Amino acid sequence: MGKPAMRELEVIRSTPVTEHMLRVTLGGENIGSIPEGQESAYIKLVFPRGEGERPMMRTYTIRHHRSTEIDVDFALHDHAGPASAWAVSAQPGDRITIGGPGPKKLINMEADWFLLAGDMTALPAISVNLAELPAQARGHAVIEVTSEADIQTLEHPAGIELHWVINAQPDPSGQPLLDKIASLPSLEGQVSVWAACEFGSMRALRAHLKQVHEIPKSHFYVSSYWKIGQSEDGHKLAKQQDAEAEGA
């Protein structure tokens, strides 16, 4: 796989979405080089470090893509990382280098019913997936947010029931998200699963779903977007080790 294309974009505006979610809109003269229709694709935000050091990269989802702009939503925490700290201070005219976009990760639409799940880091991708589902889709979407003020109005088929889990403190055991999913009734037929959340929560959720449902790999996307107490590099290593253990 080749290196992602790099381009410099300009901050157009910042818009609060909810109490702990901030949307930064990027555009500028290089926006036209991004292929059309990249909602849910990932990009790498590039943060330079000292001379001779490799820059830091942080991965985010394109929430909306218009001809002259993209929206990137940032989940805000008490202990801000480099990306969320940058987002909070970003002003119109600021510039940032991005890599990508990388491939989209959309739920498999060929199913009888659907289960989507994740925390606030996955909320942009879940939002795109919900909007892409066919009008007759049935199932559940379970979303863990920091507070009731973080509940959003999301476009979704009438047959998809939204469940909001309020959890102010991320739990490495993943119980709040898992407990809600375990309490939901299964529907008849083949389920298609899309889930992304904290690393420990992901592992607990993956184990539960494999135990409860027979799901082919083509209909099973469960990933982690971050790990409590780890940088993105530390999280990436943990994911690699977990993937090797799962494949053994």
From TrEMBL:
Pfam families: FAD_binding_9, SIP. Residues 4-108 form the FAD-binding FR-type domain. Belongs to the SIP oxidoreductase family. This is Siderophore-interacting protein.
